[in-house]
Amino acid sequence: MRLSLRHGPPRPRRPRPRGARLRAAVATAAVTGVLLTGCGANPSFGRDPHTLVIGAEGEIPALDPHRLSGTVGLRVTDALFDPLIREELGTRTDRAPALRPSLAKSWTVAPDALTVTLALREGVTFTDGTPFDAAAVRTNFDRIMDEKSPVHDPTAAGNMKFLTRWIERVDVTGTHTVALRLTRPYAGLPRMLTDRRMSIISPRALRAHRPDDIGLHPVGTGAFTQDKADHGKRVTLKRNDDYWGGAPRTPTIIVESVTDPTTLAIAAQTGEIDAILSAGAQQVQQLAGRGTMTVQYPEPANQYFLRLNTRTAPTDNTTFRRALNHAVDREAVATLTGGQVAPSTGPLPRGNEAYQEPSAGAATAYDHDPELARRLIRESGVPTPVRLKLLAPDSGPGFSQATEIMSLIQQDLKAVGVRLDVQYMEFASLVAVEGKGYENGTHGSFNGWTTGADAADFLERMFSGALHPPDGVNRGWYRDARVDTLLDRARGEPDENRRMSLYRQAADGIGADAPWVFLYQDRLPRLLSRKIDGVVPAASVYVDYTTIRRR
Q1: For a pLDDT cut of 90, what percent of the chain falls above it?
Q2: How far apart are CA 269 and CA 260, in angstroms?
Q3: Which of 179, 326, 439, 543 could cross-link 171 (Cys pair, CB 3.0–4.6 Å)?
């Protein structure tokens, strides 16, 4: 079976009615059928009937958790590695899932919030036979913190700066006990340790391979091991029968990259694919209720946005950025996606622990108001017509309708005198290009964030002036002294109610500065074969690999 398909960036296209899309999908089936080598009367032909096939919406990167930032790669590493703390994925909630033990069986935060002590699970081994203990945890932190360590990796260190900037040192206080000594009080650090980028890698693997090769030889304590990999295209995972959390229910999982949404839908319809974990609206419309697939709406906290370059004209102008926010018709985007997304007009997503529903009748921060947008542009002093250059994915997780959405936004901005030139690229390429921060002349990009958006410190990761590349993912170079002060105060506030209030004040300041054009929050539906069980629609982009199975 081989499903991977690559396309160059498509031209922006206007939305087509549902019937036209379905007719196009049927017509495409004949063309793409040659790619679906297992399809036909017996969709399980060529594979064990218990093998679970997951369709990934983007290219599968090298599986080095400390270097990753995209959902596609992090979802795969989640099967291979364990973080110190996890979220509870067995319960559905409308808030950030509760924390539960993982490689740390318990943890305590000191009253001054300057030390987090973790009691580690005993009797755990990495899949290469290396014992898991406090020394292994210390080696992982050395990789991303200690420049003198033989396993230090500057690339991984830069990617993990969002966490390590708060850690002064890591003390081994017992064979299975570590203490994180913090530079500043940080009451919310345990939730940050659930980030899959802080998964623990085998020290033997870190010493045996060059930094660039760690992701080609992933070794963790996880529920699965990597059996075979055609990186970028396909990864085969085998069950770890000795997994400390109990043997998973599924013997084999294949993660297959299918970057064309239509091909992915056809593969799911014919049984070649069992699960799409970030389904697009068209895929839901085509597949849900047709007898083969069910749809889940986990609705985790997430944000989709146009991140703007605050260093280059004219997007360095706050008033101009506010105008762009008023120019965009978010309800039209929601309609385009068949209600799959909900308009978002500020930096805190629903489901974030600091989010608060607006009072009844309250106006949203950025209602669609083209006349106000024109007035603000005049006040900004930016002459129109003006041309902006933005980067955008042509596909990828959550981006199956990216070109159609960008087409709508282009029309909205054109109506207020702003010409939007869009450069489309494959999602992984987009992340690589923007990862260094925007260059002068590039005014931003269309992107989204689906991991870690449930924590209040999501604001810090996205908007802190200290987290510009290469030290973080504030790729639009936004900085505001008052916002940074509020984030500092919130981080060390032990009282939860006061801490959340401070984060909301910071969100108000960020919203007023408009470093993003806030667009929408995706419900992030999953399409699952009716043969799949063991997946709870918890508010997360992740699934529990120990319980999912194909009957």
Answers
A1: 71
A2: 14
A3: 179
Report the C-alpha gap between 463 and 457 in whole angstroms: 10
Contact 466, 165 (CB under 8 A): yes
Return the number of other C-beta atoms located less than 10 Å from residue 80's C-beta: 24
Count the helix, strand and coil residues of the chain and give each as a percent rounded to the nearest 5.
30, 20, 50
Residues 546, 249: Cα–Cα separation, whole Å: 6
Q: What tens digit of pLDDT does each residue of 385-416 get?
A: 999 999 999 877 778 889 999 999 999 999 99
Which amino acid, residue 52? L
pLDDT at 363 (0 to 100): 55
Residue 364 resides in a domain: yes
Number of domains in the chain: 2
Q: Which helix (H) or strand (E) holds 12?
A: none
Q: What is the pTM of this model?
A: 0.79
Tokens standing for residue 308: 């703007």
243 is written with which tokens?
């997994």
Number of neighbouring beta carbons within 10 Å of residue 94: 8
- Structural domain range at position 133: 51-297+526-550
Amino acid at 288: A
Summarised one tens digit per residue, pLDDT across range 428-475 is 889 889 999 999 999 999 999 988 888 898 999 999 999 999 888 999
Average pLDDT over residues 91-109: 91
- Please check whether residues 445 and 545 belong to one and the same domain: no
Where helices occur in 236-388 by DSSP H, the ranges are 261-269, 281-287, 318-327, 330-336, 370-380
What 3-state DSSP class applies to 545?
coil
Phi, psi of 235 (to 5 degrees): -135, 135
Cβ-contact 181, 164 below 8 angstroms: no
Exposure string of 282-297, with b = 16+ CB inside 10 Å and e = fewer, is bbbbbbeeeebbebbe
- pLDDT over 60 at 27, yes or no: no
CATH number, position 456: 3.10.105.10
Q: How far is CA 476 from CA 207, 311, 347, 472, 514, in A?
A: 35, 7, 14, 11, 11
Q: Is residue 112 in some structural domain?
A: yes
For residue 535, the SS3 value is: coil
Q: Is residue 131 part of a domain?
A: yes
- In this prediction, residue 13 has a pLDDT band, given cuts at 50, 70 and 90, of very low
Structure confidence by residue, pLDDT tens digits, 336-384: 998 889 999 999 998 898 998 876 555 568 999 999 999 999 999 999 9
* pLDDT at res. 39: 39
Cα 355 from Cα 301, distance rounded (Å): 10
Instruction: Specify burial of residue 384 (Cβ count, 10 A radius: 0-12, 13-18, 19+).
Output: middle
Contact criterion met (CB below 8 Å) for 141 and 214: no
Give the residue-averaged pLDDT of 535-539.
92
